[in-house]
UniProtKB/TrEMBL annotation:
Its main location: membrane. This is TspO/MBR-related protein. GO terms for biological process: tetrapyrrole metabolic process. It is a multi-pass membrane protein. Belongs to the TspO/BZRP family. Keywords: Membrane, Transmembrane, Transmembrane helix.
Length: 181
């Protein structure tokens, strides 16, 4: 089975600066409206699970992860440009399609959680995002000789941790059911 990736989505990661810049820019614009909410009473009053870092850690961590995953997309397109094997071409194309799909899920999470305050819906987004990122990483491992995996594993690990945090916040702050009278 082969996938077709539009040329523009292949052109962006061919340039390493654009490859890194795309997730950085999307992350910045997606996260910008959330910074005020992150400092709000609503966020401060949320119960959090054990191991939740301070909110100041998140921009630093996400910046590093966006750089890493963006560079991974560059590695993938370079491998795609250089492969002659149909199986590798199919895996790399599918992996790149998954890259853009998970990037979309990633961009939607902050507005869902912080702006809309839909913690359960954000959790669903996070679960889908995490599963897709792990699947993408698995698919890209062999045709990139592990190079993409090196850049994507920290992202996958953080997504697992972020999903734990989202699940904990959802669980600890869910609405109590009214008691029957």
């Amino acid at each position: 089975m082969s996938f077709h990736i539009p040329n523009i989505l292949l052109a962006v990661p061919r340039n390493p600066v654009a490859a890194v810049g795309l997730p950085l820019a999307l992350g910045f614009f997606s996260g910008k409206p959330t910074s005020d909410v992150g400092a709000s009473n609503w966020y401060a009053q949320l119960k959090t699970p054990p191991g939740c870092p301070s909110r100041e850690a998140f921009p630093f961590v996400w910046t590093l992860l966006y750089v890493s995953m963006g560079y991974a997309s560059h590695v993938v397109v370079k491998a795609l440009d250089n492969t002659t094997l149909e199986n590798n071409r199919n895996a790399l194309t599918l992996g790149l399609a998954l890259y853009y799909a998970q990037l979309g899920l990633n961009v939607f999470w902050p507005p869902i959680f912080f702006v809309k305050r839909k913690i359960g819906l954000a959790l669903l987004d996070s679960v889908l995002l995490t599963g897709m990122a792990w699947f993408m990483t698995k698919i890209l491992d062999r045709p990139t000789n592990g190079k993409a995996t090196y850049f994507l594993l920290p992202y996958c690990a953080w997504l697992g941790y972020a999903t734990y945090l989202n699940a904990g916040i959802w669980w600890l702050n869910r609405e109590p059911k009214p008691k029957p009278q």
